[in-house]
Amino acid sequence: MNPFASKVEAQVGALGETILIQRIQEWLGPSSPEAPKGIGDDCAAIPLPTDRTKLLTTTDPIVYLKHFDNSVAPEQAAAKLLKRNISDIAAMGGEPKHAVISFAFPANLSIDWLQAFYRSLSTEANAYGVEINGGDICETSGFLGAFLTLIGFSGDRVLQRNQTQTGARIYVTGTLGGSISGKHIAFKPRLEEGQWLAKRPETISCMDLSDGLGKDCSSLLSSKQIAIINSKRLPISRAAIELSKSSGRTPIDHAMNDGEDYELLFAIAEPLTPAEFESDWSQRFDTPLTCIGQVAESEETDESIFLTDDSSKIDITGYAHFGNA
Q1: DSSP string computed for 85-103
Q2: What are the pLDDT digits (tens) for 179-237?
Q3: Do residues 70 and 2 touch, judged by C-beta distance below 8 A?
Q4: Which residues, other chains included, contact 118 with Cβ-Cβ below 8 Å and sequence gap of 6+?
Q5: pLDDT of residue 315
Q6: Are residues 144 and 208 in the same domain?
Q7: Number of domains composing the chain
Q8: What's 237's domain CATH number?
Q9: Which end of the chain has fewer CB atoms within 10 angstroms, the N or the C?
Q10: In the 8-state DSSP scheme, what is residue 124?
Q11: Are 250 and 316 in contact (CB under 8 A)?
């Protein structure tokens, strides 16, 4: 849906800031509490729980023509904004609770588009138990982007990257690649899975896959380690296979480098066997789980991934902002 309106009366600029903020409060509904926990004061005053060990904070934006375009409905854009932040909380085994959103847009943004966005954000927030505690709006000369900061709380343990041990087995949830075909706006954060993993002592490192396995896997490892990945075991999505028919790239290339999978990538330590761990997982979740490789020692620091059983000789890059700079 085109976010911009041609008729002046349908543009947010026709409302003015005060009325627009009042409308946003209405659109958010019960997901945004009364001040001082919600919109109305200079800051939101949020009581802290006493039964949590760590405060988890993350922030991710969505930018028009970067993370979404006219083919994406405002409801989908809002859901993506919240869920890509929830995915970060999930990777550390936490529970998302509070959010603030800053929105920058031009005066010709469609009122209907913005209303649909905020109402969807409210629906998604309620579904995940998240309060929208406030934010800000800013007029631009053409730029459209929403920036959300999400606060969550951990349990007794926080999962981290860079905690792997030599010999640890590397797992990934779901399937990989081809997210541009729809998954980047229609995914489910692995929240329950992350919380379960945080309670398992054999889970020694975890992160979410947002920039592609090819890039993100190096962040999972400690220094002087390499991930030995069996390419035949990669859980390649059907979307990646279909996309490869027209892209000129192999399905493995898409699985390694496309990004925006929003799956969990984690390492499990010995002595628990794969069969034991996978049995425990299957009793708790229907989410697909695949052991894709193992952590090994390496004196070479330039390469962090070695693909076995692969003759395609792809460049393992993942997605990087300013990658062509």
Answers
A1: HHHHHHHTT-EEEEEEEEE
A2: 999 999 999 999 999 999 999 999 999 999 999 998 899 889 888 889 999 999 999 99
A3: yes
A4: 24, 27, 28, 78
A5: 64
A6: no
A7: 2
A8: 3.90.650.10
A9: C
A10: H
A11: no
